[in-house]
Specification:
By secondary structure, the protein is of the alpha+beta class. The chain is built from 11 helices and 13 strands.
């Protein structure tokens, strides 16, 4: 059964929305709208023009079927009350319907050129942002003089709306990148400015330690507390810097063998494993597309925590395994036999600075699992924790095998 024109246009716009949802470029999204409109409407050229940074001219966003002379004429067009259909629509923030270019005053200065190009009518509507600001125009230009059909007016409205969503998403992403870079720069500066006085406190504290008489136990106790606080503060600053960098790094994903990553992590944790008599069993780990540096940080935090939160007198045993579910995702489990966790705290532990145990019992800043959560989210995955019976916990990390 043949599709109606409405159904054909709906398919075109659904394709454009799919491209928008999957992060395709503005050019791909715009071309889908313009080419799809042209394929389904006779005698029509579709165009998307965007307002330039000066907000006085329109520049080419997508004009796939325009001749070069038409592209040159439309690119850089001024906006104003008598600047053709598109320039007037951008200026007035209202749709502009010109049924006969040769007699319409809004095309007076362009009618000779339009005639030479075979243009007879032009319907244009502004592309408006969510705040009402003009972003550009969507237009249908015809080689015959005609009145608009209802379907053509609907195409103008809906295509302009999709184009608006695409432009705003692109600008949001660009702003986000700027903010992320500013945050990273601020964090680096703040980290340096905080660590330098802490370094001096620790150094001069060490010097004072040797000068205080052995008999002055109270002064030694005060100094030791100060030193412990300074070291804890330095650790916290380093963790905050690491957290701010996670996700701000624009490193591309690459094919990463997680077994190799974990082997390097175990080398880093060799001293702690010897100290706790811990054992790590790596049964099966996948090869996925990932950021290998962040994967190293993820498993360093998870395995390090499992070694830290072990039961007194019981050597920690940690098992790593994977089940790939056939839907392009892998479920990685990190299971231990440690002190466990009350399941009511299962979500709480991924929040910054949340600690379930006092500092005197277990060292740490309470931000390690927050970093894990951020790393997994950046990779389009999920992380959750569940108490084991009778002891220990299992972390389940779901990661895509391939990144979009």
């Amino acid at each position: 059964m043949a599709l109606t024109l409405y159904e054909k246009i709906l398919k075109v716009q659904n394709r454009a929305l799919e491209k928008l949802a999957t992060g395709k470029s503005l050019t791909e999204i715009f071309d889908t709208l313009t080419l799809g409109s042209e394929q389904n409407i006779e005698d029509a050229f579709a165009s998307i023009l965007l307002l330039d940074n000066s907000r006085t001219r329109l520049i080419d966003g997508s004009t796939p079927s325009f001749s070069q002379s038409l592209k040159d004429a439309f690119n850089g067009m001024l906006i104003g009350p008598l600047e053709g259909s598109c320039g007037t629509a951008a200026f007035s923030k209202q749709p502009v319907i010109v049924e006969d270019i040769s007699t319409d005053p809004r095309w007076a200065k362009f009618k000779d050129f339009a005639h030479s190009q075979g243009l007879k009518s032009c319907f244009s509507t502004p592309i408006l942002g969510s705040d009402g600001i003009v972003l550009g125009t969507f237009a249908l230009t015809f080689t015959i003089a005609k009145s608009p059909a209802e379907i053509e007016l609907e195409i103008l409205r809906s295509s302009a709306h999709i184009a608006s969503l695409a432009v705003e998403r692109k600008r949001y992403e660009e702003n986000l990148q700027v903010y992320a870079k500013e945050l990273e720069n601020f964090s680096s500066i703040a980290s340096h400015d905080l660590q330098e006085p802490l370094r001096k406190i620790i150094i001069f504290g060490d010097r004072l330690q040797s000068r205080i008489p052995q008999s002055d136990e109270k002064s030694k106790d005060y100094l030791e507390r100060m030193q412990i606080s300074a070291l804890r503060m330095r650790s916290l600053v380093e963790d905050l810097l690491q957290y701010s960098k996670t996700g701000a790094d624009e490193k591309l994903f690459e094919v990463t063998d997680l077994k190799e990553v974990v082997n390097k992590v175990l080398d880093d944790l060799e001293a702690r494993m010897h100290e706790t008599q811990g054992k790590v069993n790596v049964r099966n780990l996948p090869v996925i597309e990932a950021d290998p540096i962040q994967m190293h940080r993820l498993f360093l935090n998870l395995i390090g925590n499992a070694l830290k939160f072990h039961r007194k007198g019981v050597p920690p045993v940690i098992n790593l395994d994977t089940a790939c579910e056939g839907d392009g995702r892998c479920v990685i489990s990190v299971e231990d036999n440690g002190i466990g966790i009350d399941e009511k705290h299962a979500d709480k532990i991924f929040k910054p600075f949340e600690r379930l145990h006092g500092r005197s019992t277990y060292e740490g800043t309470g931000i390690g699992l927050t970093i894990c959560n951020k790393i997994v989210s950046r990779h389009g995955g999920e992380i959750a924790v569940k108490r084991q019976s009778p002891d220990g916990v299992v972390f389940r990390i779901i990661l895509p095998e391939k990144q979009k």
